[in-house]
Amino acid sequence: MSARLLLPLFLGAAVALATLPAHARTPRLSLIEQAQSCDGGHTCPYFPDVYKADYAFRKAFNVGLKKAGLKRQRWVPDGVASPLKPVEIDGKARLLSSVCEPHNCGHRYSILYDPAERSMTGVYMGSDGKGGLRTVYFGEPSIAEADLLFKN
């Protein structure tokens, strides 16, 4: 084929590419990457979405619970949640979020996820069955982490 015949083809392809929206040309960020760069508002990904989509996040959560002798509640994948927001604690970048049982936020988890280490610390707060509060930490949080988790 001659250059004369190929030129219109290349120009057509260039015009088509230029008309694509910018978001279609850039690689899509994972939910964890979105959370790391968000402002903590409604545009940040929520706990259930990340739990369902990100294997490392889900594994860190489930392993942390198991090591603490806790079972994952059935409502976790569809719980009422806060967005994952970036925080710095103990000199490390983490993602902070919480998820609670629909229509009963007396049962909830608050978590800190370390994307670099793919590890999680957290706390479960719920009824102890006697009218009191049951609080169980998992993932061995530092004192500063435990304080933040409890207040979240």
Automatic annotation (TrEMBL):
The keyword Signal applies. The keyword Transmembrane does not apply. InterPro entries: Inhibitor_vert_lysozyme_sf. Residues 1-24 form the signal peptide. Keywords: Signal. It comes from the Bacteria. This is C-lysozyme inhibitor.
